[in-house]
Write a structure and sequence with these properties.
By secondary structure, the protein is mostly beta strands. 0% of the residues lie in helices and 46% in strands. The protein is rod-shaped and about 160 Å long.
Length: 411
């Protein structure tokens, strides 16, 4: 083939192509030139920018005429003796073949020029059937095993591979409820998309039970959709078991004779930002101690909580009943009538190491006792003291402040 510069009328290139060249066609953008070589059943593709051969393409028997599609993406070649039309994809110069044409008498495609003298007297009608591209196909490989985890913790990871051909979009992969997916084994979430268009080969998909999945059994199909009838892979029944939750009763204390304080608990083991209000049933907190229970230590028991997501362990607490603060009367009447004859200090018996001292107005100590097992009767060395006010100092020795004041003897 000779290339002539139309401005200078000189030969700018000579290209060795084949033999028995029949037809020539240039692409709509002028960048590619295709020539049929009927002598060796090929088509030569030439880059017009530098007059080099881009490809030599094998077609049918005795290729004659050829022409471009309107958009320049395909070249159609008529193969006279084969009775076929070769379709060349100009992006990669691959060939597909259209069959079923009553071709004869050296027809050239699209130009209707015969190289023989017996041109048909009437037009010949052809039916051209364009088959669709192969539909997208998605396949999976690998079998998934059952998964198990504890509520609040993601399970171990299982995986399978995905392949696809003739894809017009990425493959949308969606797990059943309770599961999450990842394309890299690190970043997990709900649905993911693998690839884009064309072909995907053995892409790995990771699956696990999510840490937020509630306690129970979960199963179903992972669906894969790429614009076709969805494919799927079976997820066998997988299990989320309850998380352990420890409920500990708080220790409490109260003075003797008072009502019990509010009983409370603390929780250890909540997950997924759960809190006590998320339990189906709140725990019941009890103690056997009553208002009138003696000084001592009593158990505080928690029980009865319920939730499908937790198993419960209860740790008891203690209610300590302490002696009440002493009550000091400011008068007594030691007249022998059997009523109020001694200085009876209420609750002082709970302080066996207490010190009680009583003084007269002159500061003379007239009564002293460690402990108060025998109440003062208003006497000194067996003699009645006169009516009047006496000063006292009492130390109960439980880190309480010293108590002092006046007590009056009335006779």
């Amino acid at each position: 083939m000779t290339v002539i510069n139309t401005t200078t009328k000189t030969i700018s290139a000579t290209i060795e192509i084949g033999f028995n060249l029949i037809d020539i066609a240039i692409s709509p953008d002028g960048k590619k030139l295709y020539v049929t070589n009927s002598g060796n059943n090929t088509v030569t593709a030439i880059n017009t920018s530098n007059n080099t051969i881009a490809a030599t393409i094998q077609v049918g028997n005795l290729p004659l005429g050829l022409c471009f599609s309107v958009d320049g993406s395909k070249v159609y070649v008529i193969n006279d003796l084969s009775g076929t039309i070769s379709v060349i994809n100009t992006s990669n110069n691959t060939v597909s073949t259209l069959t079923g044409f009553p071709l004869s008498d050296s027809h050239t495609f699209g130009k209707f020029i015969s190289t023989t003298s017996n041109c048909p007297p009437v037009p010949i009608k052809y039916t051209i059937t364009v088959n669709p591209s192969p539909p997208p196909a998605v396949t999976t490989a690998g079998n998934l095993s059952p998964l198990t985890t504890v509520y609040g913790t993601e399970s171990a990871t299982a995986s399978f591979t995905v392949s696809g051909t003739n894809l017009v979009s990425g493959i949308l992969i969606t797990p059943p409820a309770g599961f999450e997916l990842s394309a890299d084994g690190i970043n997990f979430g709900g649905s993911i998309t693998i690839g884009s268009t064309g072909t995907i080969t053995n892409a790995t998909v990771f699956v696990r039970l999510a840490k937020t999945t509630q306690t129970g059994n979960y199963a179903g199909n992972i669906t894969l959709n790429a614009g076709i009838t969805p494919a799927s892979i079976i997820l066998p029944t997988s299990t989320v078991t309850p998380a352990p939750l420890v409920i500990t009763a708080n220790n409490k204390s109260k003075p003797f004779g008072l009502n019990n304080p509010p009983l409370t608990v603390v929780y250890s083991g909540f997950v997924n930002n759960d809190q006590a209000s998320d339990l189906t049933t709140q725990p019941v907190i009890t103690t056997i101690a009553l208002t009138t229970s003696p000084i001592g230590v009593y158990p505080i028991i928690a029980s009865g909580a319920s939730s499908s997501n937790y198993t419960f362990t209860y740790v008891p607490g203690e209610l300590t009943i302490t002696p009440a603060d002493i009550i000091i009367p400011n008068t007594f009447t030691p007249n022998g009538d059997g009523a109020n004859d001694t200085w009876a200090i209420k609750y002082i018996e709970y302080y066996p190491q207490c010190k009680v001292n009583v003084f007269n107005r002159l500061g003379t100590r007239i009564f002293s006792s460690i402990g108060y097992s025998v109440p003062w009767n208003g006497r000194l060395k067996g003699n009645d003291l006169p009516s009047g006010a006496y000063y006292y100092i009492i130390s109960v020795k439980n880190n309480s402040p010293v108590k002092s004041g006046w007590v009056t003897i009335i006779r």
